[in-house]
Amino acid sequence: MAPVHSSLPDISMTQLQYLVAVQESPTWASAAAALGVSQSALSQGLAELQRRLGIELFSWDGRRRVPASSTEEVTEHARRILALTSDLSGWSDRIRAGSAGKLRVGMIDAAAVDHFGETLRTFREDRPQLDLHVTVGPSSQLLQGLTSGDLDLSICVSPQDPNFSSVALLEEDLYVYAPPGARPSGPQEWGPWVTFPTGSLTRDLIGEALRSTGSTFSVVAESNQPEVLSEMVLIGMGWTVLPRIQAERPPASLTPVQKTPLLKRSLVAATRDSNLVNPAASELVSALLRQATQTPQTAK
Hints:
Blueprint: H1 13-24, H2 28-35, H3 39-53, E1 58-61, E2 64-67, H4 71-97, E3 101-107, H5 109-115, H6 117-126, E4 130-136, H7 139-148, E5 153-157, E6 164-177, E7 193-195, H8 201-213, E8 219-222, H9 226-234, E9 240-243, H10 244-247, E10 263-272, H11 279-294
Parallel strand pairs: 3-4, 3-5, 7-8
Antiparallel strand pairs: 1-2, 5-10, 6-9, 6-10
Helix pairs in contact: 1-2, 1-3, 1-4
């Protein structure tokens, strides 16, 4: 009996772009406008994509087209394919252009402001032909940017995800801080807490560490900004856990409740798990590593 050979449908990058656009836009009209095509061309492209995949992606609900149950999964595959295609295209461009091109970097606030700000400034000044764009945000947002292809490099809390490759940069000690006048006898009386929002990698680490001491982790307020968390502690809203470099500088100038840190978090340089790493990203990682090894660990 002859072996059965499966073949991939002949799908274009344009069709995948159409699918991602309609999933991320409020209407098909706005998706078409963002892509710079007519609604008719958009509809025809997606109809052809459905035909070639052999599955329904959209159905009609009255006069509205709504995604089928499998559409989100197909869209996630499309995003990954487009990101990898962007990697390949960008790689070839940078090989031809040398130090020119674009580098999109995401950094958590502690990395951008407290640890590597000077390194980033020097890196930019030394490469005037490089279009360097920096986004500051929480680790989860930056990792999503890597997945979607919006970022080339993320300086963030170490992710527990095999889809990312990472290089360790430094470790930060995180301490417990209490409102003025708080005098608990032990961890069982710590809290309530003001901390990072749900989904934050640092929040997950803090919650795990606190529960291991016997403390409850009851959260009463959230913010991505350490300065806001420090001010919340000062007005007595709750306790927090932060790196010293952020919690103990003016104007908040909090004092830790104990001399030993509650936990450590690792800051890494993360990229998509791909061999097509942006050469400029590799150069920046090398500069960050030199900074991390040459500078005393003020994070501790």
